[in-house]
Amino acid sequence: MTDEVPLLEVVELQKHFPLARTLTEALRGHARLAIRAVDGVSFDVRPGETVGLIGESGSGKTTLGWLVARLHEPTSGAIRFDGRDIGHLQGRALRAWRRNVQIVFQDPVGSLDPRMRVWEIVSEPIRAQAPRTRRAELRERVRQLLPTVGLPPECLDQYPHEFSGGGRQRLSLARALSLQPRLVVLDEPTSALDVAVQAQILNRLVALQSEFGFAYLLITHNVSAVKYCADRVAVMYLGKLAEVGPVHAVLERPIHPYTKALLAALPVPDVRRRRARYRISGEIPTLIRPPPGCRFATRCPFVIDRCRTEEPLLRVVAGDPSHRVACHRAEEVADIRPETLIQVEPAADPPATPLPAAAAPAS
Amino acid sequence: MASATASAARAAAAGSVEEEPSGSGVRSSVVLFYRILRANILTLVGFVLVVVVSVTALLVVVVPPITHLILGHSLSILPYPPLDTNAFPYYQAPSLAHPFGTDQNGADVFSNVVAALPTDLGIGFFVAGVSLVLGGLLGLVAGFWDTPGTLSGAASVTIMRLTDIFLSFPTLVLALAITATLGRGEIESEIAILATWWPFYVRLTRGEVLSIKTQPYVIAARAAGVPESRILFRHVVRNLLEPLAVYFTMDVGTVIVTYSTISYIGVGVPASIPEWGNLMYGYQDLLLTAPWTVWSVTGAIFVTVLGFSLLGDGLRDILDPRSRRIVASPGRQSSKLEPSS
Amino acid sequence: MEYRVGAGTFRALNDVSFELPTHRVVGIVGETGCGKSTLGHAIPRLLPQPPAIVRSGKVVFRGVDLLRLPKWQMPSIRGTGIGMIFQEPINSLNPAFRVGDQVAEAVHIRRMRERGLDPTFRRDVQGTDYSRREMPRAGDVVSAPFVPPALVDRAKARSPPVSKELHEEVLSFLRLVRINDPERIVSLFPHELSGGMRQRIMIAMALSGKPGLLIADEPTSALDVTIQAQVLTLMKELMEEVQTSILFISHDLGVIAEMADEVGVMYAGHLIEFGPVAEIFESPRHPYTKALLRSIPNRYKSEGPLPSLAGSVPNLSRMPAGCAFHPRCPIARDVCRHDPEPPFVAAPAGPDGAVHRSACYFPEEVASLP
Ligand SMILES: Nc1ncnc2c1ncn2[C@@H]1O[C@H](COP(=O)(O)OP(=O)(O)OP(=O)(O)O)[C@@H](O)[C@H]1O
Ligand SMILES: Nc1ncnc2c1ncn2[C@@H]1O[C@H](COP(=O)(O)OP(=O)(O)OP(=O)(O)O)[C@@H](O)[C@H]1O
Ligand code: SF4
Ligand SMILES: [Mg+2]
Ligand SMILES: [Mg+2]
What we know:
Number of domains of chain A: 2
Strand content of chain B: under 5%
Largest sheet of chain B: none
Bound molecules: adenosine-5'-triphosphate, iron/sulfur cluster, magnesium ion
CATH topology of the domain at 125-286 in chain B: MetI-like fold
Largest sheet of chain A: 8 strands, mixed
Largest interface: A-C, 47 and 48 residues
CATH class of the largest domain in chain A: Alpha Beta
Order of helices and strands of chain B: HHHHHHHHHHHH
CATH class of the domain at 125-286 in chain B: Mainly Alpha
Number of strands of chain A: 14
Number of strands of chain B: 0
Distance between the termini of chain A: 37 Å
Helix content of chain A: 25-40%
Distance between the termini of chain B: 32 Å
Shape of chain B: globular
Structural class of chain B: mainly alpha
Shape of chain A: globular
Oligomer: heterotrimer
């Protein structure tokens, strides 16, 4: 990666969803509470690259994607696209800007209007940008577009419910690509699909990227999808980034304890390494009153007192400036492999090593 | 590799491509309509009933003036003039000459019942139709622009509170109160029912709009840069039409029943106009002595209301592209049937 | 087993047969719509009929063919004989009742049955129907804001809603599923719990009936991987403590590899392979199993495209003749394309004598596939 101007730059972005107060709470002067879905996130996406965003469910991944696509108003922070702040665009300017960023939604069924035919759905963005385009021309453009996502051009007049899950996902993809956007936000593009179809879609995504040079923000909780598609990975936990770095570094040598916990939790289809035990326990705190210190402290196996009071900031660890981690003990735990968080069957295997950090509380 | 996945995908989609009746020609939609009717016998019954009833009502109204124009004197499709006192012997049981018998005034019951058809059906369509337009528009406004703190948000709240006020009265009582105030008459009683009728449409429409508005496909359109006004028509209104059409169709029957009740109580159209509620009022004492009078009117109301209900129910399938597929190509699995788990 | 719907008949299960030994875990894998849930629901006869029709077959549980049993006897099998855990924890718990009461009911039913009494189950009532239970009285709700809580508590103490002993047992089950602070949790409503906790409550409820067979239909698919790993660990530990057999349904090969002793692979309503977990994963004898294993994405972009299986699952109402998999099969020959379907035959007995059956004419060739 060269030092180009980032295509998308997000700085200290916050999105809070206010909760309704009851009358008595308001009278007693309670502060208005909010769900802090995205709570100070900074990252960037460079032209033509894929950034994978992984994390726990409810950690604010979709909210972040919607903020980037300007479907939510940010509570605070800046979103820059091509160096221009687009966080406050409105009306016509916003609609014109939308051609740059398109989004593929989490729910491939719900995001296609059941009463529209394929050509209407796929041409909707074109029509939005150029309302006077003729019907015949729209159909022609859709006809050319469909094969690029792997759909037969003859299905122009079909309805979305006539497609399988994978077919619908291809339709959403075709709609998102119809304007040749610069950035595509992919929200869980494969989570509703079976493994076989999932592989087809991921291959197609990567092929399209190398052909047209889109940048992707790939939001998913599927680590293997990120592994295959992404150049860089951002790991999110409860509204904050825990770790950001090149895909290889993050997946092969994860530093943040949550990343380790996540990788250790992946069920591997390998009967020789059947997990007997997973050594993470504890509950996820709410986003309404997040704990004051590190948000992973309730489940972290390496937690120390400092973690509960002082919030760790995202910082460069281990010399690689592109790899940043938000953990007080990043240096100490950097070399602990995720596998130490699980215990493998049968018990005849090397006896469980005690967790190093639990044994050696530092500083 | 690209070609490999492309062919894979083509194979994946192929199952849904073959024998596609592409295009939306008039002929294909007629064929489709026919197939849907044939597939569901109840819808077919409803459709036939509604067609028979409507055509009869139309003929009753248009045949006399047309024949007058052409022949110089008017003919009617009614066998005898309605409400014609002393035309025949009283209390005649049904016979070939008088299929529904005669009543206490010596009028032919069949003619009375059929003559009432245009009035009742007309009122049904009029009241339901005006409510649909009025309530639908208000509901659309109240549902689509409901952001609190804006002018339109305030309008939305106002509409809904007004609706609630109207809805908090029992329909019949309110309608009776209004007719009692306005006086007896066709227009007056229609206004009375209308006043109680539109709020249901506001509520229905607003509910539908609120749910459609948060559908992912509306957000997707917004993300594509589609202006709000176009979202309103392209997505919201289009998806509204089906539930509204279904409700409207069934509602025509409900209006007819309510209206008959009002005029049965004696505050509807003047007694000189044939109308089912009026007829019922006149026949109420004959249930034991000349039951055919009462049963004829009841039967007419029943058949009409049933027809609209059945058709309304079937309309849901006819208008929904998802169920269209099932019927259009037997044996194809519809996504609707798959459990969403 | 078929589903009959206006437009056609979906043959959701075809000649599926396997045994579930006691104290073993049998995993069922397969793509969406291949009939896994149908199988899981067919065993305790929980399928909605209509549209479902059981055409033929036997479900022998403890020597009794459940399909021949009169309908009114089924409730006494469910819960204490066969327990179920469903995919969606939020939909399987009644939102109107405190979780403690829901667990208590399950425990209560089991105890009554152990004593030969069966209070809630009349002949015509199926399953545990929460909607028939008593609702909180209106008086309680209305008086709550006005009556001092201390008074209410005293009144409650005088007439304990559940016996102390029952309460203790409920708490012990919640502790069993590693719920911290169960005294507090019992008085919460399902929506006040996280997904992982709800799923653990479901497991507690299922276990509290002490079933001989537990059918777990995608018990962790709705959960996050880290929470899933926590729940799976818990299930493994529980398997040691509570001796039951488990039918573990999942579409995730990783989860199956971790949990199951025996694995059945389903494709379009057919059980196409069944055998010990190690054999299924290391030396599959059906090309579909092989393809499924191969298409799990696990590589970087730079390592080339992901292997994927072309084509899609056939429509259950229009199955191809012969082997259901032949249109997508790389080793299909003429014999596969014509009826009858390939027989479900056992491979020559393996080293430990475990049977490994598959429905393919050429199981030996599978090993040479990429
Ligand atoms: N419109 C909204 N109003 C209020 N709260 C919201 C809204 N959208 C999201 N939230 C809350 O914000 C938090 C983050 O949600 P989000 O959908 O971004 O998570 P996610 O990481 O995408 O999760 P998943 O993996 O389940 O999709 C959740 O607690 C959610 O309840
Ligand atoms: N109530 C029903 N009516 C008609 N068809 C049904 C019904 N329930 C299921 N089916 C059909 O039966 C087939 C098997 O469904 P089933 O739910 O058993 O699949 P599954 O393997 O559990 O899938 P998933 O992984 O999505 O849970 C599907 O093709 C489905 O369309
Ligand atoms: S800061 Fe502390 S609690 Fe947070 S991840 Fe690091 S070690 Fe764990
Ligand atoms: Mg999401
Ligand atoms: Mg299922």
